[in-house]
């Protein structure tokens, strides 16, 4: 097994003015499960394809283990890639599909048999080994594609949106299975997805990319609780973080965030940071996770200076929780996640309070999180 | 490594066309040539190991004792200025690697002959409808096959050779496959129609068209070649044909598809001519007209310089101008997308939510890609 290191990697296509991937630096540890995530066109797949050897690296160095592999053919990189299309070879049965790569490498027959049987057992497809791809369901085909990668016993697994062709239910199931599998095999894995739920649930570490640039690389909980900028804050989390434009105002009893229909106190510790960074009086953006907006009377009583009133435009009761779509705060819709047993109804006025200890303040121009990495 | 592999690598290294000739066959073809050629043929000059200069063309015969006369071969390099040092280096290289060379099977020389013929017709912009009878492979080209064109781009040391590619594809496919080298880095593959479309008979209720199956097969072939042979390449494929008829035109279409695909869709590697109609049309517009069109869209340069706006527009068109779907795909709030679209309207006067303006913007984006070159 091996780690992967990207040093100042750039990708620029001929005829294009701008680089698609810009100065990517990543040190992926041995056995780490790293997820590259971002919207379409952010450069995540291009980065993965450069690691796989399917795209030329315009600038920078790529290491697999201690070896620079910029000019090494994919088949000689000791990697196994699972593609989005996971095209199985239609005329071969499942066994042959999985054994194919090993046969090409002239691995001995009994060793091929051992590896294929073992992988099939791990993936629970032993009973499918004699079937042709056309007789398999989407999930089973995906398992075979994974099996094809596993039998090669590579140093690194590369997966390019491998679940995107599956329906939502199967995707959830396979998500858990791949995570378990990679942990069991103790192999480094680099996984590309545009789905933040996949990223959050699978990765030891997540790399969020936008316009070819890494925005943040951190474990899921850090990314969620301590996003570096508005893009990361908005990308990670569902429903997405609320953003409310307003101003920081210094008053006699403390620092306040002031916006349309909203006047809430900022906790002392955070106010201190904002003062030190000369943010007082400036226009900023308040970032608020839906679950940090509370409806419980106990919370409202305990935080009287963060209470506000809003109109409920829509409610979505999901059983265990209810989403309230509120209007009137900062001119945009704000979402609150409250208890599923809440009695709040559409069209009503509701009093809520904000857990300002968990709120984020972003600079208006740079969109940077003022509290990012402040100890 | 086989002889053909050595030839393609040599061609890339010396950066000049290198031809592999069967000495016996070649001698037979030289009757009408110059006196020097005839002398060479008569005296069997090519049968001695080493370099021979005939009529400003260099020949290198590697290992005449390998087999009988008919199976001997030589490299032919069309260059009067080939330096002696380079010749010596090539000789050293070839003699080293040919110590284990296996004589080419018959098929390899036949596909090579076809490749040479095709390359010549393409170079001279000729499009004969029929293959000449002199091509030894012709009799095998009357069945329906699906042609793929593979153009490699990666570093030289990541590129395998004929034998490796042929073996890989033969293992992959159920029926015979023909691998025709067109150039050191360009290969034409003929896959039996049934290998690609036979699943259609077992498709059941989900009717997939032949073109959908060809595309799916192309993606699978791409994965296979990328993982097992060479990493960086482009692939194009077109409808089934009998190669004996209209082959040159088909290869020209495949080449054009790779070119257009690479120009307009840089991140794609499998290119389908039937998906490149608009691109073909746009590319055919004269340069002056293209530039004029772009100049007439006010503020377009500002929009095109902003990567975020470009991605927004491309995704918007990909999602059939659906605002909600585009916002979802880009992971931005619907209002953010509307704000961006309004901003584009402000800058260019084009509101891409209207069909007419969307068409103009789509054309402007495509034209911009070709005017940059």
Structural account:
- The complex is a heterodimer of chains A (375) and B (373).
- Chain A is α+β, with helices and mostly antiparallel strands and 375 residues long.
- Helices cover 27% and strands 33% of the residues of chain A.
- Chain A has 10 helices and 20 strands.
- In chain A, strands 6-7-8-3-9-10 form a 6-stranded mixed β-sheet, sandwiched between helices. A 5-stranded antiparallel β-sheet of chain A has the order 13-12-11-14-20. A 5-stranded antiparallel β-sheet of chain A has the order 15-19-16-17-18, with no helix packed on it.
- In chain A, helix 5 links the parallel strand 7 (156-160) and strand 8.
- The longest helix of chain A has 18 residues, at 168-185.
- Chain B has 3 domains: 3-104; 107-280, Alpha-Beta Plaits (2-Layer Sandwich), CATH 3.30.70; 285-372, Orthogonal Bundle (Arc Repressor Mutant, subunit A), CATH 1.10.10.
- The longest helix of chain B has 19 residues, at 210-228.
- Chain B is 51% helix and 13% strand.
- The model of chain B is unreliable at 64-70 and 100-104 (pLDDT under 50).
- Chain B contains 16 helices and 9 strands.
- In chain B, helix 13 (307-318) packs across helix 14.
- With 373 residues, chain B is of the alpha+beta class.
- Classes of the chains: A alpha+beta (375), B alpha+beta (373).
- The interface between A and B is large, with 44 and 49 residues.
């Amino acid at each position: 097994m091996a780690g992967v290191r990207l040093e100042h990697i750039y990708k620029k296509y001929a005829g294009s003015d701008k680089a698609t991937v810009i100065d990517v630096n990543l040190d992926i540890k041995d056995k780490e499960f790293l997820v590259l995530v971002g919207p379409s066109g952010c450069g995540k797949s291009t980065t993965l394809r450069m690691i796989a050897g399917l795209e030329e690296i315009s600038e920078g160095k790529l290491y697999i283990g201690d070896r620079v592999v910029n000019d090494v053919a994919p088949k000689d990189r000791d990697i196994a890639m699972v593609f989005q299309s996971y095209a199985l070879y239609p005329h071969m049965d499942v066994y042959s599909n999985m054994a194919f790569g090993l046969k090409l490498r002239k691995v001995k027959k009994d060793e091929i048999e051992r590896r294929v049987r073992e992988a099939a057992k791990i993936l629970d497809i032993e009973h499918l080994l004699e079937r042709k791809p056309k007789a398999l369901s989407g999930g089973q085909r995906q398992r075979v594609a994974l099996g094809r990668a596993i039998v090669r016993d590579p140093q690194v697994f590369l997966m390019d949106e491998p679940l995107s062709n599956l329906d939502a239910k199967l995707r959830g199931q396979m998500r858990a299975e791949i995570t378990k599998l990679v942990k069991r095999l103790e192999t480094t894995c680099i996984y590309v997805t545009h789905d933040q739920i996949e990223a959050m649930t699978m990765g030891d570490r997540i790399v969020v990319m936008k316009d070819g640039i890494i925005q943040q690389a951190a474990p899921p909980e850090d990314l969620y609780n301590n996003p570096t900028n508005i893009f990361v804050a908005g990308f990670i989390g569902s429903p997405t973080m609320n953003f409310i434009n307003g101003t920081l105002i210094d008053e006699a009893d403390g620092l306040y965030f002031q916006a349309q229909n909203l006047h809430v106190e900022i906790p002392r510790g955070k106010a201190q940071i904002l003062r030190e960074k000369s943010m007082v009086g400036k226009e900023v953006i308040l970032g608020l996770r839906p679950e940090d907006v509370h409806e419980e009377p106990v919370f409202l009583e305990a935080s009287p200076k963060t209470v506000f009133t809003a109109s409920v435009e829509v409610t979505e009761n999901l059983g265990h929780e209810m989403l309230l779509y509120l209007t009137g705060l900062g001119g945009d819709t704000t979402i609150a996640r409250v208890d599923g047993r809440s009695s709040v109804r559409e069209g009503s006025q509701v009093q809520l309070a904000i857990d300002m200890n968990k709120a984020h303040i972003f600079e208006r121009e740079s969109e940077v999180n003022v509290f990012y990495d402040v100890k | 490594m086989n002889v053909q592999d050595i030839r393609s690598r040599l061609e890339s290294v010396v950066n000049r066309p290198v031809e592999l000739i069967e000495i016996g066959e070649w001698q037979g073809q030289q009757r009408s040539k110059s006196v020097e050629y005839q002398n060479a043929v008569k005296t069997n000059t090519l049968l001695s190991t080493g370099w021979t200069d005939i009529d400003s063309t260099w020949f290198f015969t590697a290992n005449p004792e390998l087999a009988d006369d008919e199976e001997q071969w030589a490299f032919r390099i069309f260059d009067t200025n080939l330096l002696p040092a380079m010749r010596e280096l090539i000789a050293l290289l070839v003699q080293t690697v040919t110590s284990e060379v296996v004589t080419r099977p018959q098929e390899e020389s036949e596909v090579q002959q076809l490749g040479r013929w095709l390359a010549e017709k393409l170079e001279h912009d000729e499009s004969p409808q029929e293959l000449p009878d002199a091509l030894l492979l012709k009799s095998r080209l009357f069945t329906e096959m699906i042609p793929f064109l593979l153009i490699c781009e990666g570093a030289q040391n990541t590129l395998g050779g004929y034998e490796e590619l042929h073996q890989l594809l033969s293992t992959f496919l159920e029926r015979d496959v023909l691998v025709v080298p067109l150039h050191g880095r360009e290969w034409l593959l003929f896959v039996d129609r049934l290998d690609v479309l036979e699943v259609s008979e077992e498709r059941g209720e989900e009717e997939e068209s032949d073109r959908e199956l060809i595309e799916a097969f192309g993606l699978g072939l791409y994965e296979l070649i990328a993982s097992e042979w060479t990493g960086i390449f482009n692939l194009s494929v077109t409808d089934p044909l009998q190669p004996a008829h209209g082959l040159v035109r088909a290869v020209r279409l495949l080449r054009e598809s790779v070119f257009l695909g690479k120009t307009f869709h840089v991140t794609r590697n499998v290119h389908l001519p039937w998906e490149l109609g608009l691109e073909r049309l746009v590319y055919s517009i004269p340069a002056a007209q293209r530039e004029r069109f772009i100049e007439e869209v006010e503020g377009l340069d500002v929009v095109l310089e902003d990567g975020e706006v470009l991605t927004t527009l491309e995704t918007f068109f990909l999602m059939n101008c659906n605002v909600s779907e585009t916002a979802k795909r880009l992971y931005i709030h619907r209002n953010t997308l509307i704000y961006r679209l309004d901003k584009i309207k402000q800058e260019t006067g084009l509101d891409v939510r209207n069909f007419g303006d969307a068409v103009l913007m789509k054309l402007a984006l495509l034209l911009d890609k070709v005017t940059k070159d």
